[in-house]
Amino acid sequence: MGRRAWGSLALWLVGSVLAGRLALAGEPGPWEGEHDPHRMRMEQLAEMEARGKLDLEQAREVNRFWSTHLRRGPMTALDSAAYSIAEIHLRRDEPKESVAALTRVLAAADDAELKGLTHFNLAEIHRRQFDDSGAAAAEYQKVDGSLQPRAQLFLFGLLAETGKADEAAKKTEELLQAAQEKGEKLALLQRLAGLYEKAKMLDKAIAVYQRILKDFTPADLEAMRQAAVTEAREGVQKMDAARRNGDPEELGRLERQLRRRADDLRLAGRLDELRAYERTARSLMQQLFRPGPPQPGEGPQPPRPERPPGAEF
Asked: Which of 18, 91, 172, 233 is deepest in the core (most CB within 10 A)?
């Protein structure tokens, strides 16, 4: 396969993942509605809700939607059927039956991503249907895998919404102990300080900001950005190797992995690193996968998809 064909394929992969991407990271599962623009918009609004950036009417719209819908992700046809049953119960205003259906999925699941997804959905049901913030918080904290950054964002949003700033502080300290990267620690402290500000606990907010200034230096920030640049460069280089080896499946997997990492940085609020990561990835992908001249014997090339609003790469 010539360079032009691979370039077009790579662009097609980028566009198709962006245009049809689920609100959750990963490959699509066998269920109807996976490319629904309204569902994706509701996920974006839910993220804004967790950050406290919606007005009252928008918040009501988000709550109405996610009170009757489940998040979906990679799953088998059997798991998809079980999820559909749980979602039908939600739409019939039968949340107890929906919880029971999801609990059965959880008991039978041997896939970590499906377990994380199911805990996330249980958290949302407890929060939006039962108004049980304690049970919702417990479920959010059980989420592992690719959904963990989103679950943490929603957990902190819930704690802020319910005025539990001190509980958020306790959770932050737990996460700080487990954090492996300085960027993760900085983002956690920034999130806690912002939560204190919203709660009008200004002395505590100042204390956290002072802790940030004490624990982090400009050199630390530059090291974080450089680490993000290196990570993005290595990811694109692996994509180039897959292209050269004639492996479109691996190329697609690596492209999704690159995009998931950007999503994780965004959800965690690690914006300095995110900007460095996206800038590097975008520049290298444009260089590596720019279609070249037609090769002898190549057929028509697939059209380059339009980038949806907000596409970074």
From this structure: 172
pLDDT surpassing 80 at residue 11: no
Does a structural domain hold residue 312?
no
Structural domain contains residue 104:
yes
pLDDT exceeds cutoff 70 at 151: yes
One domain for residues 67 and 138: yes
Q: Given this model, what pLDDT does residue 304 score? A: 44
258 CB-contact burial (10 Å; exposed 0-12 / middle 13-18 / buried 19+): buried
Give the pLDDT score at 292: 58
Is the model's pLDDT at 228 over the cut of 90? yes
User: What is the rounded distance in angstroms from the CA atom of residue 279 to the CA atom of residue 233?
Assistant: 10
Report how far residue 202's alpha carbon sits from residue 200's, in angstroms, rounded to the nearest whole number.
5
- Separate counts of helices (H) and strands (E) for the chain: 14, 0
Q: How far apart are the first and last CA of the chain?
A: 24
What ranges in 21-164 are assigned the alpha helix state H?
Answer: 37-50, 56-66, 77-91, 95-108, 112-128, 133-140, 148-161
71 & 82 share domain? yes
Last residue of a domain, one of 162, 193, 226: 162
Q: Tokens in use for 226?
A: 């450089």
| Structure-derived torsion over alpha carbons of residues 112, 113, 119, 122, reported in degrees to the nearest 10 | -140
**78: containing domain:** 33-162
- For residue 311, is it within any domain? no
- Secondary structure letter of residue 147 according to DSSP: G
Q: Is 80 exceeded by the pLDDT of residue 4?
A: no
Full-prediction pTM beyond 0.90?
no
